[in-house]
Amino acid sequence: MKDASVKDASVKDAPVTLPVETGSFRPSELVEIVQLDPSIKLDIRYATANNFVGRPVYDEPRAFLQRPAAEALVKAHRWLKAHGYGIVVFDGYRPWRVTKLFWELTPPDKRDYVADPSKGSLHNRGCAVDVSLYDLNTGELVTMPSDYDEMSERAHPDYTGGTEEQRRLRDLLRTAMELHDFKVYRYEWWHFDHKDWRQYRVQDIPFSEIPASGLPVQPGETPPSNPRL
Hints:
two-stranded antiparallel sheet, disordered C terminus, alpha+beta
């Protein structure tokens, strides 16, 4: 999304604080996705200026999920390999403060595309992931009916426009993810929520403070170095 869609940061919303949640939750176990499968690619645009904010909001181009969601993503990625594609991750766990920033910078009429910080995002729980596909033969990101983070009808997973090939690839991605315990968000073809999201709290921990998972690399593979497109 371009800067033109972002409202002036001087416009003030009512103060919002981190949600206070009660009940029983699983302990957080955020794991770095590429530690599970280094062939998953990263395109972490929030660590660059190539995003709807127009500047980096992450210090590091990394992606994390709660372990069950990360393992499910790997299964979807490996299922896709039989079809000639792999998964590219745009975003996973997102600290709550970034969700608050997105809400403040998004015009009210576009807020279906961002989470309300008073409730927290499923990204804040480590159970939502933004993904697309790359072609195994070329290594290139495929073309979908809309760009990532585009706040328009073209981003909807049931959008009937675009080319037949773009819709085929979008639907292939959705099939892979929904076969492996994710559900697409109704306004964004790239956003998928893991079934266990209610079992984890909203968090605001920076990437640099997430404990190392210690996950083993698959046999015959070398440790990942944050592969990117």
